[in-house]
Amino acid sequence: MHANILETCIVLLCLSLSKTLQLNDASTSPEEWVCDGALLCFREFQRLSQLPVTGGLDRVTLEKMSSPRCGVQDAWGQRVSRDFTGRQLRKKRSPQTGEKWHKRHLTYRIMNWPRNLSPSQVHMAVKMAFQLWSNVSGLIFQELQQGPANIRLAFFEGEHKDGTGNAFDGPGGALAHAFFPFRGEAHFDLSERWTLNGLKGHNLFLVTAHEIGHTLGLVHSPVRHALMSPYYKKMGSNALLSWHDITAVQQLYGKQASLLLSELLKSVLLFTSPDPKGGSRTPQYCQGFFDAVTMDEDGTVLVFQGHRFWTVFNGRVSAPLPLHTRWPKLSLAIEAAAFSPLDSKLYFFKGRRIWRYSGSDLDPGFPMKSSDLGLPIHPDCAFFYQPLGRMVLFRGSRYYVLNPESLSVEPYYPRALRDWKGLPRRLNGALTRPDGKLYFFKEQQHWRFDPGKVRITATGRWAEKLPWIGCHTNPSLRDNELL
């Protein structure tokens, strides 16, 4: 909810409460009660938001009020009403003490999906979100494609016959809301831009994980970095679940019997997923997406997702590590990466900036602004193109050619992406293999490009077809060859 709307709502709430009071002290005017009510409202909001408690609408408070958040009611509204009237107001989506599911195996169903994500991306994000909770509790979740389910997830716009005051408010503000057991529903604002990488939108995985917490019976947490904080968190260096989140769900559903403490820490902090065919755990990126991919001078594949990266050499994948452990001063997440064999340097791209590293050392003068080099902001992917001896960046329907020596875009660029016949827009990764072949990635698909033939020569699902990507696939599987 935007700041001016929330401010009005709080004042109206306080005014409403003041009018219902039975004033025993004739010396106290209704206006004083209204001011006291507003002051208490603001103080409670600030206290639970971990802001300086001033009781006034200062800049920090207004900015917090306008931050994207969950639409489920906070505790401060109930507390204010109780303190002023001596009774609890009935509010939508307010859990009762001990409200939980009385079984450990729950089903869920995705009713529809947003416009800018594919069904496979949505299914993957939702599966990851449910798994986050099952990793630390005694719960087991199963997706259903049809029929009734315990928990239903759906996208709506505006008023959606969900009760008074539950209409979505368009981009920004309340992104989603959920109902506690036993209704078991989570609703998401269809007008928001949903993403899986946090760029120009809201991360569907994180928001879904938060709303699932409500459907399990968890209320908002006063801990700032908790997943169940009313203000949605972002992918960063902190664990996805705080100990406050873990304790809350385990109080309702117990611990996962098979998890030792060390395994629990690993599942929360590293967040990997079981191999769907059984056996060893596979990297999380194998479940469907990554932010960038490249290969260094030793032939090691580097895969980037959020604030972490994996290395893959001869098909063997490392444990995930935070980016800053290898590249200090790098952004917490990146959009594109490319290694240049001309100068043995690694280039990273994020938003409006570019980082260049020699080994683990950030080169002097970096990060630089993309605009200073004539490059676009938010590139889709970057790679070194051997026939030109230049760096190439894709962005939307155009591509740019960068001279690594002069750090300038070559004349007559950008050009239309149709020069690369057969490649789709909005790729999320590209790299050149030792044999000179180029591999492009988008979601779960890959395209192999032969610079000599200047055309696509193979396509397929990279997690299954490319053993060097580190997803433990059968090495006998071959690409879908195109003659």
Structure description:
The chain has 483 residues and is an alpha+beta fold. The chain folds into 3 domains: 64 residues, no CATH class; 167 residues, Collagenase (Catalytic Domain), CATH 3.40.390; 201 residues, Hemopexin. It is 22% helix and 25% strand. It has 9 helices and 30 strands. The strands form 7 sheets. Strands 1-5-6-4-2-3 form a 6-stranded mixed β-sheet, with helices on one face. Strands 11, 12, 13, 14 and 15 form a 5-stranded antiparallel β-sheet that branches. Strands 16, 17, 18, 19 and 20 form a 5-stranded antiparallel β-sheet that branches. A hairpin with a 2-residue loop joins strand 17 and strand 18. Helix 1 packs across helix 3 and helix 2 runs antiparallel to helix 4. It is globular and about 65 Å long. The N and C termini lie far apart (56 Å). The N terminus and C terminus are likely disordered.
The parts where pLDDT drops under 50 for at least 5 residues are 1-9, 14-34, 76-98, 258-280, 473-483
Overall outline: globular
Radius of gyration: 26 Å
Strand content: 25-35%
Total number of strands = 30
Could you report the average pLDDT, rounded to the nearest whole number? 77
**Largest sheet features:** 6 strands, mixed
Q: Any idea of the CATH topology of the largest domain?
A: Hemopexin
Give the structural class.
alpha+beta
What is the domain tally?
Answer: 3
- Could you name the CATH class of the largest domain? Mainly Beta
In CATH terms, the superfamily of the largest domain is Hemopexin-like domain
Strand order of the biggest β-sheet: 1-5-6-4-2-3
What is the number of helices? 9
Helix content: 10-25%
- Our measurement of the CA-to-CA distance between the termini, rounded to an integer number of angstroms, reads 56 Å
The second-level CATH architecture of the largest domain is: 4 Propeller
Signal peptide: 1-20
Binding site for Ca(2+) 1: 192
GO biological process, one term: extracellular matrix organization
GO molecular function: metalloendopeptidase activity; zinc ion binding
